[in-house]
Design brief:
single chain; 738 residues; alpha+beta; Penicillin amidase (Acylase) alpha subunit, N-terminal domain; nine-stranded mixed β-sheet
Length: 738
């Protein structure tokens, strides 16, 4: 959106500087909000927060709304700034908080009509769900009233349930790359061709990758979900691995919590800032986990404009009027000086529309105009069996995610979930579409029961690691690719993680709980992985004459593809991968490292760069991987195993010290076991700890030493277990003895 930023900056720069010497524009002074008035909301809720020995909050409310109130307050204690950022973004006020660079978000909020959807549909949300959303908002309001010094924007408060709904409407499409698709429209030139209708199987094409289908970096790191049924476990247990790979900090970093109410809510797991429910985890009866999938959920249409009226477009032989409006966008320029500019926003029969020099484009995406996200998650949280859980999935608006499931009855299930549009055959839906015909205006989605899915396969295990749904398990029971139209855009790639999961879980017909955990922490590359192919190219050449390069060559020759902390070959291999990823003629997906494109020349150059890097920063090439691969959190600095696209995934950013500092990958991990009698137990770990922002807290990094050892800690799920490991118990506002 660079062009948009330049436009706004130009307007603001000229007008603001001219006017600054004359008057302060409206909005220059921050709104004055009496946060003290928000303290009264606490009288409406009955909740107790119990923090265990790791600081994890277990929230006990009389009602579901009480529990949501406690969650809002407890999460604010640990990550208030990030939660506020999520709601400021959904309000379309990031430009106020962070200046001109954040303004594109605020334009997007108005272009997508986020708040129009809320205003039109909030009253259709069931009262019990509204109460939960309002309860969560009030928990944040009460925390703000007691901690005014931590408030980012006073005018953000009071928050309401409508803000919670808006947060999901704003945030969910970003997981499947809507911001990238919009940004594509603001390029200097048109970024794709317009599809023409013809009879053809577009799956046969090899060069049809559209930027629209690219996922944002926040979800490019991948995830794992694995479920093993009683027929494959050693003692009749059912296992589930909840193992999302998220950034370790920020708006999409996991937070662990346990929610309990007298109305039947009892769920533990991970959630993201702004969520009033657990996103994935387990209750006493069942559990589930998500990994990102990438069905085709976004389409861009080129409108045919009336040469005599720039606000009309042709549709089915008739001229239609665009809905034309202006979006006021306020930005903070410096200090307390704010300025509001207006930006054109358009709407067509397809949805949000953008006018550029190279065309007028409409964009349509899965879940447009839907509001039921929180209701779906609440129903999933409170489901007690497979049928209830599937009903919540079937009826809800969640537009994406591979989803793996297991339960106390021994069922395991996988679904390639999505609100996948049913599109007309004959068009290449990876290209832009003609926007002048109802043939391209899709209105329906593939029904849930017709999505690729696997229930209790003969193999008794399912897995997905951002991989093809057609290879969910071994043997019979996989979905048949021939049954799914190419217009659905279902991805069929395989990650290294998925290949290893199939080999490990598929190669053991009697899996113990210890083996289930050990396989999850596998740190190896399969022979098909891009890393191994690149190393093969290096070893296919004669040994180098340079002593350091020869030593590194010999390390690679004896390397077994493992990225355990002690491996010296891994340091050479992963640094080679790092430089190969940056090569201009390489095309490798960092979390789906099979089928990447690279040349022998680039591989050799990357190898030499890796060797030079090790010599410069470590004085030698024989360096244990854990000396290069680090978890750094405040004063904590620990060595790590794992690497990109292995089951124990770790993605690092190269620091000035020459070491990788972990930024994403394995983060919140939850492994669940149901015994044959239905009894549930689980273990979890967080890469840091429960205190997301408070560096003075003992829980800022107390789980990191356990995390790097690839160990887990018990989840205290029953009230007796929680009380036996209790660190603190309090009502909101009373944590400091108020």
């Amino acid at each position: 959106m660079k062009k948009w930023q330049k436009i706004v900056l130009g307007v603001v720069g000229v007008l603001a500087l001219a006017a600054a010497t004359i008057f302060w524009p409206q909005g220059v002074w921050p709104f004055v909000v009496n946060l003290d008035e928000l303290e009264a909301v606490n009288d409406n809720y009955d909740v107790v927060i119990r923090r265990d020995s790791f600081g994890v909050p277990h929230i006990f409310g009389q009602t579901d709304a009480d529990a949501a109130y406690g969650l809002g307050y407890a999460h604010a204690e640990d990550d208030f700034l990030t939660i506020q950022q999520a709601f400021v973004a959904a309000r379309g006020k990031l430009g106020v908080a962070y200046g001109i660079d954040a303004a594109p978000n605020d334009y997007m909020v108005q272009l997508l009509r986020v708040w129009d959807v809320v205003d039109a549909k909030y009253d259709t949300v069931p009262p019990d769900i509204q109460a939960i959303m309002q309860g969560y908002a009030d928990g944040l309001n009460y925390y703000a009233a007691l901690h005014e010094e931590e408030v980012l924007l006073p005018e953000l408060f009071p928050l309401s349930g409508r803000d919670v709904a808006a947060g999901f409407i704003h945030r969910v499409p970003l997981f499947f790359g809507l911001d990238g698709a919009l940004g594509e429209l603001f390029a200097e030139t048109r970024q794709n061709v317009i599809s023409q209708k013809e009879v053809r199987d577009w799956r046969l094409e090899t060069n049809l990758q559209s930027p629209v289908s690219n996922l944002p970096l926040t979800v490019k790191y991948g995830s794992n979900v694995i479920a093993v049924g009683p027929e494959r476990s050693a003692n009749g247990e059912t296992f589930l691995a909840v193992n999302s790979h998220q950034p370790w900090e920020g708006i999409v970093a996991w937070y662990e919590a346990h929610m309990v109410s007298e109305e039947g809510w009892n769920m533990v797991g991970g959630l993201l800032p702004g969520s009033p429910t657990i996103t994935h985890g387990h209750n006493a009866h069942l559990g589930w986990a998500f990994t990102v999938n990438s069905p085709d959920l976004i389409d861009i249409f080129v409108l045919e404009m009336n040469p005599d009226n720039p606000d009309q477009y042709l549709f089915d032989g008739e001229w239609r009027n665009l809905e034309v409006g202006e979006a006021p966008i306020t930005v903070t320029l410096f200090g307390r000086f704010r300025w509001t500019v207006k930006r054109e926003v358009l709407w067509s029969v397809y949805g949000p529309t953008v006018r550029q020099d190279h065309g007028v484009y409409a964009i349509r995406y899965a879940g447009i105009g839907e509001i039921g996200h929180v209701e779906q998650f609440v129903r999933m949280n409170k489901a007690t069996n497979l049928a209830e859980w599937q009903a919540a999935m079937r009826e809800g608006p969640l537009p994406m995610f591979n989803t793996g499931y297991a339960d106390a009855e021994g069922n395991i299930f996988y679904v390639y979930n999505g609100r996948i549009p049913i599109r007309a055959e004959g068009f290449n839906w990876q290209q832009y579409l003609p926007g002048n015909t109802s043939e391209t205006l899709w209105t329906d989605y593939l029904p849930f029961d017709e999505l690729p899915q696997v229930l209790n396969p003969p193999s008794s295990f399912v897995q997905n690691a951002n991989s093809s749904p057609y290879r969910t398990t071994l043997g019979a029971g996989n979905p048949d690719e021939a049954n799914f139209s190419p217009t659905l855009g279902i991805n069929d790639t395989m990650s290294n993680r998925s290949l290893r999961a199939l080999a490990l879980y598929g190669g053991d017909e009697s899996i113990t709980e210890a083996e289930f955990m050990a396989y999850k922490y596998d740190m190896a590359y399969a022979p098909e992985a891009d890393v191994m192919r690149a190393i093969g190219m290096i070893l296919a050449e004669s040994p180098p004459s340079d002593p350091n390069e020869r030593a590194a060559f010999e390390l690679l020759a004896s390397w077994d593809g493992q990225t355990n902390p002690e491996s010296t070959g891994a340091a050479v291999a992963i640094l080679t991968l790092h430089y190969l990823l940056a090569a201009e003629d390489s095309n490798i997906s960092v979390s789906n490292m099979t089928g990447g494109v690279f040349t022998a020349v680039s591989v050799q150059n990357s190898f030499r760069q890796a060797v030079a890097h090790l010599v410069e920063h470590f004085g030698m090439v024989e360096v244990p991987w854990q000396e290069v691969n680090r978890l750094v959190r405040g004063e904590v600095d620990l060595g790590l195993g794992g690497a990109p696209d292995v089951l124990h995934a770790v993605y690092g950013e190269l620091g000035e010290d020459g070491r990788f500092h972990g930024i994403a990958g394995d983060s919140y991990i939850l492994l669940v076991t149901w015994q044959p009698d239905g009894t549930v137990s689980s273990q979890s770990i967080h890469q840091y700890g429960s205190a997301t922002l408070d560096e003075s807290s003992p829980h800022y990094a107390d789980q990191a030493p356990i995390f790097v050892q690839r160990e887990l800690s018990p989840v205290w799920f029953t009230e007796d277990a929680i009380l036996s490991h209790l660190e603190q118990e309090y009502e909101p506002g009373m944590e400091d003895g108020r």
